[in-house]
Each structure stands twice: as structure tokens, then as C-alpha cells.
Automatic annotation (TrEMBL):
One of its GO terms (molecular function) is efflux transmembrane transporter activity. GO terms for cellular component: efflux pump complex. This is HlyD family efflux transporter periplasmic adaptor subunit. PANTHER family: MULTIDRUG RESISTANCE PROTEIN MDTA. It comes from Staphylococcus epidermidis.
Length: 317
């Protein structure tokens, strides 16, 4: 009986020891995995960025009236501030007092000539030539006494300076109702864009929308450090004010990752909901040193282990 108890006790001890050892090993592995997950560095899967620039909301067309003293004094503005006008609408009026005074003098000269000449002298050819020149000068002078300038486009009126004092001061600007985004790109980026191509735009208030390329200039607008830059026009949303700034980005369908994220030339490790799983991917070389372009197997914003350790590889691959 005593022997039987000893045997049973020994077996029970061995069972307890084995169970504890197994539990410890399992717990250690779980703890090790948890610690590994907490300490690993990940990178979010993002599309490869092909182009990045900035743009500004602007009217498609605009026209500025400048103060021109040779036309006379600015007599009055014929349209209200912020009003809408059509093409050929009268916008402002000049009055030239010098021309007005000259016209009066020419009238007096003509009257005096008619009164002072005898009947015989009036038949003189030279006299009639003089009168004709005088009349022509009067017509030209009279037409330049009052000058009315008209709007060359449809749009909205914006007063800039209604009482100008210096030549070429801005008086009024007319902005067309149609809005666009103006931006520019470098010569190396020209081949990335084409008319009606979609491109991502984000406003200063983080409103994001898809725009379309409307126009690409083939003449550089500036040259800086030996690089030519070209103006482009993009479609926009009309609710944004003129002057609103935008971030403009063009991304490819590929996802760019560092080569260190690839395991065994075909896998990446994904961290999701606190768990790591392996994922087979297809990729190609990137022009950017130390990177590859994932063409298949990853979703945008998935978390990829940036530098898998040999320990992680042994556990999950």
C-alpha cells in the first residue's frame, strides 16, 4: 500500500511538473510575442508619390482697369462693387477738361473764321481746306472729351482704388465667374500629366477632392536654377474663395516600401488588431534607392513591419 502511494505520488508530481513546464513555455512564447508586437516598428502602406506641388484658387479670366491720366480725370464708376457685369458693360468714365477747353477754342476759331472772311475769300480753295481740317480736329477733340471704358469679359466687379492719384494705379478688377486652380510643375514632371487626367487636391481646410487637368502650358513661365517650370490649370470646386491654397498630389497605383520589409523575397508581415500575419506580395524595383514598388497583395493604410527581426521571421513565416 505504501509502495502504491509512493508510485501514485511520483506520477502526480511528474504530471504537475510537466504541466507547469508546458504552461511556462507557452506563457513565455505568448509573452515573447506580445513584447515583440509592442516593440516592432511598422510603416503604413501608401501609394507611391509621383508629383507634389501647390496651387491657388483663381478666376479663369480677369481684367484690371488702370488709371490713365492721358484720358483725363476719372469722372465716375458706372458699376457697383461686387456686382456682376456682362461683356461690353460700361465700367468707368473719364472726363478730359483740357480737351473740353480746346474744343471751345476750336469752336470760337471756326466762328471767327466764318465771320471775318469776305464772300470772295470764302471761295478760295485754301480757305475750305483750312475749314475742313478745323472741323476734323473738332470732331476728334470732342470724341476724346468723355471716354467710357467697357468690360471685355463677363464677371464680378471688385473695387481696388476708386480715387486713384498716380498713373497705372489699379482701379477696378473684373473676375470671371468660372474658377480654376493655377499651379506649376517642373520640366521633369511634364510627362506625368495629360489633359483630363484625375489628380488629388486638398484645400487648406483639409477638404479633399478629385480634380482634372484642364490645361498644360507648353511655354515655361519661369526658369529657376536651370530648371523650367510650366503653368497648369486644374478644375476646382466653386465654394472655395479666390486665393485659397491647395496641395496637389499625383500618386501611382503601386505602394512604395523599403526593401527591408520584404521577407524571403515574397512576403511581408502585416500588423492588424494586435496580431501579425504574413502576406505574399508581388513587387518590382523602384527608381528610389532602397525601395520597392508593391504591385499586388497590399491595401492602402495597412501596417507593414518595417524591419522584421529573425525572431519574428521564425515565428510567423
Amino acid at each position: 500500500m505504501t509502495k502504491q502511494r509512493i508510485v501514485i505520488s511520483s506520477l502526480l508530481f511528474i504530471f504537475i511538473l510537466t504541466t507547469c513546464s508546458f504552461s511556462y513555455i507557452t506563457f513565455s512564447k505568448l509573452t515573447s510575442k506580445t513584447e515583440d508586437i509592442k516593440n516592432i516598428k511598422t510603416i503604413k502602406a501608401k501609394p507611391k508619390l509621383l508629383l507634389s506641388t501647390t496651387g491657388i484658387q483663381a478666376p479663369l479670366n480677369s481684367y484690371i482697369f488702370y488709371y490713365t491720366p492721358t484720358l483725363g480725370q476719372l469722372q465716375k464708376l458706372l458699376v457697383k462693387n461686387h456686382s456682376k457685369v456682362s461683356k461690353n458693360t460700361p465700367v468707368l468714365e473719364y472726363y478730359n477738361y483740357e480737351k473740353d477747353h480746346l474744343y471751345e477754342e476750336l469752336q470760337n476759331t471756326l466762328s471767327n473764321e466764318r465771320n471775318n472772311k469776305t464772300l470772295n475769300s470764302k471761295n478760295d480753295l485754301h480757305y475750305y481746306s483750312f475749314l475742313n481740317q478745323l472741323k476734323l480736329q473738332m470732331i476728334q477733340t470732342k470724341s476724346s472729351i468723355k471716354s467710357t471704358l467697357f468690360s471685355p469679359i463677363n464677371g464680378s466687379i471688385s473695387y481696388i482704388n476708386s480715387i486713384p492719384s498716380k498713373p497705372n494705379e489699379k482701379i477696378v478688377q473684373i473676375n470671371s465667374n468660372e474658377r480654376i486652380i493655377r499651379a506649376n510643375i517642373s520640366e521633369s514632371e511634364l510627362n506625368l500629366l495629360k489633359i483630363n487626367q484625375n489628380i488629388s487636391v486638398t484645400s487648406s481646410d483639409n477638404t479633399q477632392f478629385t480634380s482634372k487637368i484642364k490645361e498644360i502650358s507648353n511655354i515655361p513661365s519661369k526658369i529657376k536654377n536651370g530648371v523650367s517650370y510650366y503653368d497648369i490649370l486644374l478644375s476646382t470646386q466653386p465654394n472655395h474663395q479666390i486665393g485659397t491654397h491647395f496641395k496637389i498630389k499625383l500618386a501611382s497605383n503601386d505602394i512604395e516600401l523599403p526593401t527591408s520589409a520584404i521577407v524571403q523575397k515574397r512576403y511581408v508581415l502585416i500588423l492588424k488588431n494586435g496580431k501579425i500575419t504574413k502576406r505574399e506580395v508581388t513587387y518590382k524595383k523602384s527608381l528610389k534607392s532602397g525601395y520597392i514598388n508593391i504591385t499586388k497583395g497590399l491595401l492602402i493604410d495597412e501596417k507593414v513591419v518595417k524591419n522584421p527581426t529573425s525572431k519574428l521571421i521564425n515565428i510567423y513565416i
